[in-house]
Amino acid sequence: MASVQNAGRSPVKILFTTVAVALPAIAFAAQTIPVYLSETARATFKALPSITPTVANNPITPEKIALGKAMFFDPRLSASGVLSCNSCHNLATGGDDNHESSIGHGWQKGPRNAPTVLNAVFNIAQFWDGRAEDLKVQAKAPIQAAVEMANTPGQLIATLKSMPQYVEWFNSAFSGEADRVTFENVAKAIEAFEATLVTPAPFDAFLNGDDAAMTSEQKQGLTLFMDKGCSSCHGGINVGGEGYAPFGLVEKPNTDVLPENDKGRFAVTREADDSYVFRVAPLRNVALTAPYFHSGKVWDLKQAVAIMGTTQLGQELTEKDVDLLVAFLNSLTGKVPEVAYPVLPAETPTTPRPVLHILPQ
Length: 361
Fold this sequence. Notes:
The protein is mainly α. The chain has two domains: 36-50 and 199-332, Orthogonal Bundle (Cytochrome Bc1 Complex, Chain D, domain 2); 62-195, Orthogonal Bundle (Cytochrome Bc1 Complex, Chain D, domain 2), CATH 1.10.760. The chain is built from 13 helices and two strands. It has a two-stranded antiparallel sheet with strand order 1-2. It is globular, with a radius of gyration of 22 Å. Residues 1-31 have low confidence and may be disordered. Keywords: Heme, Iron, Metal-binding, Oxidoreductase, Periplasm, Peroxidase, Signal. It comes from Mesorhizobium erdmanii. This is Cytochrome-c peroxidase.
C-alpha cells in the first residue's frame, strides 16, 4: 500500500460505455496476470514460516510461551487491574483494538493507533516510530506508560511474586537463573508468546506454489501492487514493517490524516530528515485492522489505499485499481492461532491492590 490519495478526494472512475472490452472475465484475467507472477512475487516477498520463529537473545520454550500467554491476558499487569496487553492488541479483532487510538489508564486517550500484534515478530522494530528494537523492549513500554497501563516494574514484580502459581511458572520458564521473577523475564515471556502469533494466509500458499490459493482478482491486484511500486516499501515477509518512509513522500496528506503535532521518527532520532517518517506499516491482516495509519483517522480500506496512491506514489488510482489492490490485500488475511483464554492465578492477601485513577470532572 505504498501509494494514493487525499482523504477528501474520491478516486477517478473509469466508465466502460462500450462493449469493445467486453471479453470474458477469464480472458481479461489471463491478459493481466503475468505467467511469471509467482516467481516475481517470491523474489519480492517471503512466505511465513511453518514453525515459531526464533528471536534474538531469548530461546523460546513451551514454558515461556505459557507464562507469556498468561501475562498477555492478565489485567493485573496494569496499575488499575483493568487493562491487559490484549485490551489494545485484541487477538479476537485482528490483534489491535479497532479504535482511532487506544484508551488507557483513567480513560486517557493514547496518541497513536495501536498496531496489530499479529506477525509483529517479523517487524524491523516496534511502534510507529521504531523506538523499540524488538518485542521485549516493546512489552516493557506500555506497562510503564502513564497513558497506558501506568504501572512500575517494582509494583508489577511484587504483584507477580505474591501469587505462588506465577512464581512456579517463572521458575519453570527460567530454571537456569538465580533471580527468575524479574521485569526482564516478564518481557521475554511475553515476547515468546507473541512470537507464536503468526497467521498464514492464502498469499503464503500462493508463494509456496499453490496457484489456486488466490483468486484472479487477487492476482491482478498483486500484479498491480508490484507494478505501481507499492512493494518497494511493502515487501518482505510481513509485506511491510521492514523499513521507514515519510508519510507524504510525494504529496503531504491533509492534516486530518497526518496531524502536524506528530512528527514520527523525529521524536526518536531528533534528525530533521526524520520528520513525518514512520515505520512502514506491515499489511498482513490489514482488512481486519481499521482504522488506518498512525493517526487512526481513516476507517475505509479503499480510502486508505487511495490516499497512499497520491501521497506515496504521486498517482490518482482509478476505482478499478483500488478494487484490485484491496482484493490482493484481502489475500493477506490469515488464520489466527487458536488461543484458549487462560485461567490466571488468584490474588493472595499480599497482592498489591489496584490503583484507580479518576479523571477530574
